Amino acid sequence: MGIPVAKIGIVPCSGEALPAGTVCRLACRQVLDKLRPGQTVAICLPLFIAGGEEERGFAAQHPTITVDGCEKHCAAKATEMFSGKPVQALLIPEILKKHGIPTPTRLRGFGAEEEAAVQAVADEIAQAVDAAAQTRTQENRHGVV
Amino acid sequence: MGETPSKQVVVLACSGIGKTWGALARETALELVERVRPGVATTTCLPLLVINDPEARRLVLDHPVITLDGCPKACARKSVEALGKKVDQPLETIQFYTAHRDLKPEGVAQLNEAGLKLAQVAANELGSTVDRLAAGEQT
């Protein structure tokens, strides 16, 4: 009891032009709404450039996990450029490859096959959240900020 | 028979991860690109502009641009303006609802039926804007 829950920022790429971007978006929402509600906050990536001081400040002061849909690593790069290095940079093609799940080929209208991809990515993000929260809690205990 | 459009038109939706209006922006953009004006309307990932990706930058700078934003922070519009380009047709998705109050969008990860219908209606209406911009006209 009495140990505050560390807030973890999730920065999804949300890539509008690629199916993995849709996976990214849906998986992040699942973590925010169902898997780790109250512990996670979504950061809208384009707000970094649109003058989102709040978003930049949050990402600078809290652990962030970036989730990218392709090897261009927009979320990881932008987070590092505008606030600070993410504690974990997840890449959806790597996650899906690890689980033997094919990358979806459509941008919307996901069915059962695509849902498996979303679930695998969501689970991976949730694990990353747990690891980041544990590290943060230990740092707080030892007075490291 | 209509004339062949002269060029592509870039439709950029905000990422709006936490808002219904952002989800509506994304769905409307995809309706335009995939159903209403395939081959003429095109899109790219907004985050690519944030990291200044050369290919995405060129696409936006070389073509007319429509932005669809889900909130007044106007990330999509500002991301284009940050490149030094004026958006040809900046829009906020709440405008679509204002014009069609019988279609109230709800949901974030997945829009409700009314939201999906509103995206279709909005994309249909934007088709003529895409045509004008593709033909080199101003909006």
Describe this structure in words.
The complex is a heterodimer of chains A (145) and B (139). Chain A has a single domain (8-136), classed as Rossmann fold. Chain A contains five helices and four strands, in the order E-H-E-H-E-H-E-H-H. Chain A has helices at residues 19-35, 53-61, 74-82, 92-99, 112-141; strands at 8-12, 40-42, 64-68, 88-91. In chain A, strands 2-1-3-4 form a four-stranded parallel sheet, with helices on both faces. In chain A, helix 1 packs across helix 5 and helix 4 (92-99) crosses helix 5. In chain B, helix 1 links the parallel strand 1 and strand 2 (41-42). Mean pLDDT of chain B is 93; it is low at 1-5. Chain A binds chain B through residues 12-18, 21, 25-26, 28-30, 32-33, 42, 44-52, 69, 72, 74-75, 77-78, 81, 107-108, and chain B through 12-18, 22, 26-27, 29-30, 34, 43-51, 53, 73-76, 78-79, 82, 108-109.
Number of domains of chain A: 1
Distance between the termini of chain A: 21 Å
Give the overall form of chain B. globular
Portion in beta strands of chain B: 5-15%
Largest sheet of chain A: 4 strands, parallel
Computed Rg of chain B? 14 Å
